Amino acid sequence: MTAVDERGMTRFFEEFEPPEGVRVELLRGEIVMMAGPDLVHNMIVEDVLDQIPRKQWARLQTQDVDIVDEASEPVPDLVVLKRDATPEAGRLLPSELITLVVEVVSKTSVVRDYLVKRSIYAAGKVPAYLIIDPVMGHCVLFTLPVGEGDAADYTAQLKLGFGDRLPLDMLGIGLDTSGFGTFPGVRPHRFP
Fold first, then answer.
1. Percent of the chain with pLDDT strictly greater than 90
2. Neighbouring-strand partners of residue 100
3. Would you say residue 90 has pLDDT above 50?
4. Coil/strand/helix, residue 76
5. Does residue 84 lie in a domain region?
6. Could you give the angle at the alpha carbon of 83 between the alpha carbons of 45 and 39, nearest 5°?
7. Residue 87 belongs to a domain
8. Assigned domain for 42 exists
């Protein structure tokens, strides 16, 4: 897709009205629609929210993110930024304000979460990207973004199983993952 086509898709996406109950993201010029999340997914997001100190951090669910120089407007399950860095209004949150994004893998989002969004968040210089994977029962924390566009990636990775305490040094906490649920009967994948 050419840069002109991607900019055109971005303008189209701004006015696009999805069907009720459908979540929509723009990922590298493609509109991706998803059904509402599973209960396991929502309970994990709630558990993470409860562990991040509200006085210090803004914890925003399903917030549209603006990635500079990308035809992408991802909508992470959770965005964390310093409370004093939060804009007063606006649909798009600039990626440079973000400290951590969290995606909880669904049965259909594995490739998007592990490959596409990983590259997009790295291109947006988001310092830390946490994937919580109830398919495989583990968390993967990516840090130290490098590169531009499709070639962007994270240079550091920490993978821990559910039940382990995940150090989120950027937030000054250790994330207790012992209460995270898993999807029963879902075929395992090969990521990360």
1. 72
2. 80, 128
3. yes
4. coil
5. yes
6. 10
7. yes
8. yes
Residue 88 vs residue 6, higher pLDDT: 88
Residue-wise pLDDT tens digits, 15-67: 666 667 667 888 988 888 877 788 999 999 999 999 999 999 999 998 999 99
Q: How far apart are CA 101 and CA 131, in angstroms?
A: 9
C-alpha to C-alpha distance for 152 and 154, rounded to whole angstroms: 7
User: What residue type is 144 in one-letter code?
Assistant: L
Query: How far, in Å, CA of 74 to CA of 68, rounded?
Result: 12
Q: Mean pLDDT throughout 120-140?
A: 98
State which residues form the domain around 154.
37-176
Q: pTM score, two decimals?
A: 0.89
Cα–Cα distances (Å) from 7 to 14, 77, 148, 151, 180, in that order, read 11, 25, 17, 19, 39
* Whether the predicted pLDDT of 148 surpasses 70: yes
Q: The CATH number of the domain where 79 resides is what?
A: 3.90.1570.10
Which helix (H) or strand (E) covers residue 133, if one does? strand 128-133
Domain count, the chain: 1
In a domain, 1, yes or no: no
Specify whether the CB–CB gap between 134 and 40 falls below 8 A: yes
DSSP state of 5: H
